[in-house]
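re: ur question from yesterday

yeah so i grabbed the chain u mentioned. its 169 aa long if i counted rite. heres the sequnce exactly as i have it in my notes:
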Amino acid sequence: MKSQQPAQVSRDSALSLWVVLARAFDSVERHSRASIARFGLGATEFGVLEVLYHKGELPVCEVRRRILVESSSTTYVVDKLVDRGLVQRRPSGTDRRVILLELTPRGRKLIGRIFPPHAAVIRHAVGALSARQQAQAVRLLRALGIGAAARLKNPQANEDRRHPNRDLP
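ran it thru and got these structure tokens back, copy pasting raw so excuse formatting
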């Protein structure tokens, strides 16, 4: 009888990173979605309220860019928030093409009440890492995001080019 040796698995670290990143995001996002659902909001609705709470009045296109959703979704969500009296639209005074969004007093009160417990849920979810590990993850993931975005703009980028953060632990 032949002895079976463990199969040598060739691991592609880039693909492993993608899988681990996706699974980690999913795990943390489940905490986030559960937290947001407690307040009767969807993730995109919460995202609009949160960005306006922290950044103040913004053009619709900037809100869309910051919360990473499609144009049609943003319009639908903003319509719902306007109907609920949480957000208001107004034309820009300098560019007729631009519509600005801002929280209403009711919207500011709501997000001011629900953001602190939501932030605590997120802190708990990522608490599996120490503060130092969290800071390191932020640096690495920021470098990954910037680098991946640059490669979208320049698909011919040399993959062997040394990146300043490549050798971080």
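noticed a couple things. The chain has a mean pLDDT of 87. also The chain has six helices and three strands.
anyway ttyl
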